[in-house]
Amino acid sequence: MSAFIPLSVPNFGEKEAAYAAEAITSGWVSTSGGKVTEFEEKFAAYVGMPRAVAANSGTSALHLAAMAAGLGPGDEVLVPALTFIAAVNPTTRYVGAQPVFLGCDDSLCLDPAAVEDFCATHCTLQNGKLINNATGAHVKAMVVVHVFGNMADLPRLMALAETYHLILIEDATEALGTRYTSGPYAGRAAGTIGDIGCYSFNGNKIITTGAGGMVVSNHPDWTEACKHRSTQAKADMLQFYHDEMGYNYRMTNVQACLGIAQLERLEDFIKVKQARYAQYKAALDGVKGLRILPFRTDCTRPNLWFFSLYLKDSGLDRDTVIEQLQAQGIQTRPVWALINEQADYPKNEAYHLEKAEDYRRYIVNLPCSTNLSEADCQRVIDAVLALV
Ligand SMILES: *Cc1c(COP(=O)(O)O)cnc(C)c1O
Hints:
Elements (H helix, E strand, L loop, with lengths): L13 H13 L8 H13 L5 E3 L2 H11 L6 E6 L17 E5 L9 H11 E4 L2 E4 L5 E8 L8 H10 L3 E5 L7 E2 L15 E5 L12 E5 L2 H11 L3 E3 L4 E2 L10 H32 L6 E2 L7 E2 L5 E4 L7 H10 L5 E2 L15 E2 L2 H9 E4 L7 H12 L3
Parallel strand pairs: 2-3, 2-6, 3-17, 6-7, 7-9
Antiparallel strand pairs: 1-10, 4-5, 5-6, 8-14, 9-10, 11-12, 13-15, 15-18, 16-18
Helix pairs in contact: 1-7, 2-7, 3-6, 7-10
């Protein structure tokens, strides 16, 4: 029996062990010790921002971003229906706001046409505020997720944000390393273009600190607000005065060491993603109705975080494929159930879901770890080809 091939697992080696050992032997294993600041600085330099603020997860980073953006009770937020639920809960319910769910385009990301249609036909601009005609609520922001590392259509979404006075929150948790190579944002990284952007270092992401997150913003005071709230909103270090309700969303020194090591390896990880993606594409794309979904490469360098096998024209059933591969020790998964169908959100508005429903039904994500060998990738390919 050949070894199990997981979907997406951490790639740790000697560098991570050595850097983490520094923190452990020094005794600085909690939230002090200097490595968090070093990781923040190195991360900021990598994405090309003056400052980055570490958090203990992508979810807490998104919660800090929603608070920095001033979202609260009475506000509505445009969010994608096809995404992980952590893009939605922290930016809406955690702060008392409500989501309006919108569909995706063929990048799998929030569809600018759906945003435009919702704003133009369901809302009215009143004194610089976009008001939802049905609810009377202030539609204050949109959350743009760069799904699977594929850049959303930011030139159009940024223009809509400006027209309709919407704050643009980038959920770049899956897209560290993705950047524009041409167009109006040439050279800019995913997460650095909207008002505020968030990243995750969960175990399945392209780099990991076990768990962790980061926030960057084009508003320096928002970045500082995130730092402040992530550290209990302490106004005075000695006397323990707190000037508002804060949180303990801090990263540890050990995690930061892991992050520094992983960041040094990120570009090499992307090279592996490129090789494996090309291998899947050459062997499967166009074969008996199978497709490997494309990334936006005309104007971006994507990080190629997750690979999508699209089954619609192959006649194969998603869940059968997943089961049959699982029986051969190959882990795959469907794309997320739409968020508007989840327990917490049955009453929220949802529009233009056709493509989201289609991709939900026909995508199987293939193994894509940065330590996936060429031989194991070939085993996945052979197993898929045996099904069609
Ligand atoms: C992973 C992920 C998050 C949350 O990150 P955690 O670090 O797991 O809290 C949020 N949004 C999206 C789209 C993600 O993929």
